[in-house]
Amino acid sequence: MAGTGRRQNILLITCDQWRGDSLSAVGHPVVKTPNSDALAREGVLFSRHYAGAAPCSPARACLYTGLYQMNNRVCRNGTPLDDRHDNVARAARRVGYDPTLFGYTDVSPDPRNRAPGDPFLRSYEGVLPGFTTRQLLPEHQKGWLSWLTQRGIDSSAGFPDVHRPSNADAPEVSNAVPIYSKDETPAAFLTGEFLRWLGEQDKGEPWFAHVSFLSPHPPFIVPEPFNTMYDPAEGPAYNKAPSFEAEKASHPFLAYHLEHHQGKSSFIPGAPGKVGDWSEDEFRKIRALYYGMISEVDSQLGRIWQGIRDKGDWGDTIVILTSDHAEMMGDHHMLGKGGWFDGSYHIPLIVKAPGHERAAGSTVDRFTAAVDIMPTLLELVGGAAQPHLDGQSLKPFLDGDEPADWRDAAHWEYDFRSVANGTTEAYFGTGSRQLNLSVIRTEAVKYVHFGGGLPPLLYDLANDPGETRNLANDPEWLAVRLEFAERLLAWRARHLDQSLALSELAENGPTGHFLRLP
């Protein structure tokens, strides 16, 4: 159904740590996501969509600003976002929206604009400037915990222990249920808050909501019926080295990351030891829970779709469903995110835009990126995407067109500095500026370049899609390695910060484009 002609509503949904291959709409052999699939039938599914960085704060900075990490410079959770950067919420305000947040944005505020003792400077879980906060739900989840208490559930254990099995005798890895039901998950709570707010909106007055779900981010636990929805024996084979130790030995970064950033307790509260200690059977049980968490959040999407329909707004609402980054989920003996593997960066994207139905139900297999979201939204609502942005509007694909100058590769970055405690710097014996990597990934080849002298990586994706054989030192592949190193250098040169470089002071004053400060 096409829109009525009035300015459209905007619903931006992020589901944290959702792998791009884990939707039934893209042909996953196990996962069932009927409500996401229903959205894809009315919109466009982008099957090769990639995050710009990891973990949460850097990934979201790319999504919210339309700038690659090399320009927004949010390197880690806790890196402040420079307040000079524009973002999707500020841009929406300029065209008349009041962007309203349900959940979190994980944006650390610029400390130069605040007093040294400001409590906002004690957490990386700040709110992106420009958003009105209706229901904040950062990692401590206190808003949800107090709601559980009101419902008669003892939530005094707090985060993350509230996500332990209700049965204290349950094995370390099991499908035991938590103390809350399917109607009392954090996603169910946030959905309810959004629907309550939706009912308060005046008919005909366009709204902008950002619903930012934590699921399917760990801890990995989910209530009935989702805890037994998937058989651990089912699912694709893992991409990995023959052993945890062999994976560590394959690259100096992995030796560090697998040893220092893969504690079990980050994924199952209270579990001692390292992720690499789990057997494949345990990994498969965890993956079945992860799939269940995807289906649980998908069920909440169904509530949202129905609520918007009931209000009569569906035909006038742009819906963007995506994630910030993805989840390794056992590939390369890992859980979580980081490094260079596709498992950490390939994320879902579905866009439904009323008035752009010519391509409805189609799948786009061109490379798209998180930085494309901001220019896409601006073009859809009549705003002007500023020319210094790194992203490109996806609107041509929504109209069934094939842009002639579209990118032929995906790029992302990962920075593994640890400014607060310096542990990574001490381990590698170098400064923070050298602890980073950049990726160029085409359909057939992936090249990974490191700062600080760590060895590069090169994968033949046509014959090794699981990224298990590094060909960087293979004499037969040296020409390809050089070609991709040059392509990566050209990409970085093209995308160096353009916020003032596209302007010039001439006799009659500034000419060209320059980014005005907020």
From TrEMBL:
The keyword Hydrolase applies. Keywords: Hydrolase, Metal-binding. Residues 8-382 form the Sulfatase N-terminal domain. InterPro entries: Alkaline_phosphatase_core_sf (IPR017850), Sulfatase_N (IPR000917). Gene3D superfamilies: Alkaline Phosphatase, subunit A (3.40.720.10). Pfam families: Sulfatase. PANTHER family: IDURONATE 2-SULFATASE. This is Arylsulfatase A-like enzyme. It comes from Aminobacter aminovorans (Chelatobacter heintzii). The lineage of its organism: Bacteria, Pseudomonadati, Pseudomonadota, Alphaproteobacteria, Hyphomicrobiales.
